[in-house]
Amino acid sequence: MHDKSKYWASLPIDQIAPQILGQYESYKQWLRDTGYAERIAACYRAFYGLDQAGTLAVTRNQEGVAQASINHFKSLVRRLHILVTENKLSFQPRSKNSDAKSQITSDLARGICEYYGDEKNLHAVLSEAVLGALIQLEYWISAPWDLAEGYELTVDGGRVIRSGDQKFETYGPYDVAHSKTDPKTPWVIIRKKVNKYVEAALHPDFADEILKTSISPDLYDMNYRREGLTGREDEDYAYKYVLMHSRTPVLLKGRLVEIMGNQVLVDKELGYTKVPCFKITAGDVLQEVWGDSPAVDLLPLQQALDALFSAVVTNNLNNSLQLIWSADPNLATSRLADGQILVTSATPPQPLNLTGSSNEAFKLIEMLSSHQGLLSGVNDVARGNPSSSLKSGTSLAVILAQAIQYVSNLQKSYARIAADVGSQLIDNIKQFATEDMTAYIVGSSRRGMVKKFKAKDLLDIERIAVDLANPLTQSYAGRMDLLSGWMQYGVIKDPKQVISFLRTGEIDAVTEDRFSDALLIREENEMIRKGEVPPVLLTDNHAEHVVDHKAIMSSPEAREDPLVFEAFMTHVQAHIRELRLVPPDLAAIISGQPLPAPLGAAPPAPPMPTIDGARMPSLPAEAPAQTQQAYQQALASLPQQQEEEF
C-alpha cells in the first residue's frame, strides 16, 4: 500500500510499477462488477456468432435441440458502420493567420493528413475504431511518435538510430484503463501485447526481467473467449503496460512510464502537449464514463430471433421423416423393391405433419426483423434495396440521410476522433520531426507541395478540423443531380472534372483550380497592401482580379496611403491594358465560352491588268499624287480584253 497522502501517479520509480498494475486490475474488476464487461462480451459474441464457450452458434445437443442463428445483428451493425465511414473525411487545418503564406501552409498540412490517411493506414485505423465502438461500446486510438520508425540515420553500437515517424494503434475496452468517474480522464494505462524477445533487445539492461514475464489467463479478455484456449497463449508474447498522464498541478510535466512485470523500462516526462490516446463511442451513458451503442438495443431482438429460428429448425430436423397413423391395431408394413414400403391396414392410414410450425412463429420472426430496422434506423435505401417509387438521386439521398441521422452521434464522434488524431499528427511532427520528412501530396492545386518538410514548416497550424462529405456525393445518382445544377450555373465546365467527380465524388476535383486562383489573388492583395505591384499575365482572369482587388481600397487607411494607392492603380491599369490585348479566342477559352465564329472570306482581288501577257506593276501607296494620276490614266487607256484575273 502506498502513502495515501501522495497521488499514486506521482510515486517514485521504485514504487510506481505495482501502482500501475493495481490501477489496471482495479479497472477490470470495476468492469465486471458493473456488468459493463458482460454487455461488451454479449455484443461481441452476437456479432461473431459465438456462444458462451466461443464455438459457432449453430449446434445440436443430445436431445436433438438445434441452436441456429440467422445473424441480422451483424448485418445491421455492418450497415451502420458503412453509413458512418463511407462519408469521406475532409481534413481542414486551422492556421493562426489568414494570409496567403498561412493558406499554403494549411494546404501542406492537409496534404500530410491525406498522405498519412492513405499511405500510413490512418483511414483504416479510423474505420476499425468505428466498428469497434459499435460492437464493444468503446474503442481507442493511440497516436504516439515512434523513434523506431522512419528511415535509418546511423548505427550506434549495433543499434539502428532512426528518424522517427508517426504511429497509429487501436485498442479495445479491456486494453485501456482510465478514470472510473471523470469522462475527461487525465490518465490512461494501455496494455500492449508485445514480443518479449524484441523488448529484451530494446532494453538489454532489463532483459532477464522481461523474459520472465508471460500472459496470465483472463476469461474477461477477448483473447480468451474461446473454450480450450486458456493457457495456450504464444509463449513469445507478454503484456507491457504504458501509463500516460497529462500535465496537471500534481504532475506539471506529465508522466510516461512503461513497465513489464514489476520492472520499469521507461520513466520520463509525457513529452506531448496532451495524452495521445483518444476514445470513440457511438453514444455515452449519462453521468457515467461508459459508452453506448445501437448494438445494445438490437441484441435482445437478435436473441429472440435466434430462439425462434432454433425452434423452427429443430422441429423440421427432428420430424423431417414422414410418419403415418392408423386406428387398425393390426397394421403391418413390408418393404418392397426400390425402397418402397407396403402398408396393410383395415382403415386408411393418415399422414402426420409434425414439421409444420405455427403461423404466429413466422409472424413474430417478421415482426422482430421489422423492429430491428426501426431500432437501427437502417432503412431499405441504406440496405441497398430502395423502393421502386424512389427514382431520383435527390430522393434517394434524402432517405439515406435519414438513416445517417440515426447514427449522427457516432458520426460526430468519428469526425471528432479523426480531428484529434490529425491534430496529434501535426503536433507530433512539429515537436519531434528534427529531420526532413517527405509526404507525397496528391492534387494539382498542391503539386508544388510534393517536397521534404520539417517541423518549422507547420508551426503556423494550430489544429485540424474534419468535415464529412455531403450524402449526395456518396451515390452516383446524387452526383448526377449535383452536376446538373453546377453545369446549369456554370460552376463546372471542364469534361475532365465531370468525369473525375462522377468517379470519386470528391469536390476538390471541381474546386481545386478555383482554389489556386483565389490563393493567387489573395497573395497579390497582400503585395499591394505593402506597396508592391504584382505582375500581370495576359492569361489572367482580369475581370475577377480587378473585382477582388477592389476590396483593398474599401479601407480608408489604404486610400490615404500613397504607396498602396499607387500600387493598386498601377496594377489595375495593367489588368485593363492586358485585357484590351487579349485575342477573342483566348478570352473565350479563359471565360469558358465557345470560340467566336471565324470572319467571312476576304473578297477576291480585282483583276490585274496585263500588257502583252505581262502583268502591269502595282503602284506603291506612298507614291506622289502626280504619279498616281498618270498611273490611273495609263490603266484607262488599256484595252479591256487585255485584263485578266490574277
Write a concise keyword list for the protein shown above.
5-stranded antiparallel β-sheet, 19 helices, alpha+beta, 646 residues, flat
Helix and strand arrangement:
Elements: H1 13-34, H2 36-48, E1 59-60, E2 66-67, H3 72-85, E3 89-95, H4 100-119, H5 122-136, E4 139-142, E5 145-146, E6 152-156, E7 159-162, E8 165-166, E9 169-171, E10 176-178, E11 187-195, H6 196-202, H7 207-212, E12 237-245, E13 255-260, E14 263-268, E15 277-280, E16 283-284, E17 291-292, H8 294-318, E18 323-325, E19 332-335, E20 341-344, E21 350-352, H9 359-376, H10 393-406, H11 408-432, E22 437-438, E23 452-453, E24 461-468, H12 476-488, H13 495-504, H14 508-529, H15 542-549, H16 556-560, H17 562-581, H18 584-591, E25 608-611, E26 614-615, H19 625-637, E27 643-644
Antiparallel strand pairs: 1-2, 3-24, 4-9, 4-15, 5-8, 6-7, 10-11, 11-12, 12-13, 13-14, 16-17, 18-21, 19-20, 22-23, 25-26, 25-27
Q: Which structural category do the helix and sheet elements fall into?
A: alpha+beta
Distance between the termini: 117 Å
Q: What strand line-up does the widest sheet have? A: 10-11-12-13-14
Number of helical regions:
19
Instruction: Please give the largest β-sheet.
Output: 5 strands, antiparallel
Average pLDDT metric? 79
Beta strand count: 27
* Poorly predicted segments: 223-230, 443-449, 641-646
Percent in helix: 40-55%
Determine Rg (CA atoms, Å). Answer: 39 Å
Overall 3D form: flat
Percent of sequence in beta strands = 15-25%
Q: Please, could you describe this protein's structure?
A:
With 646 residues, the chain is an alpha+beta fold. Among the domains are: 8-81 and 137-293, no CATH class; 485-596, no CATH class. It is 43% helix and 16% strand. The chain has 19 helices and 27 strands. It is flat.
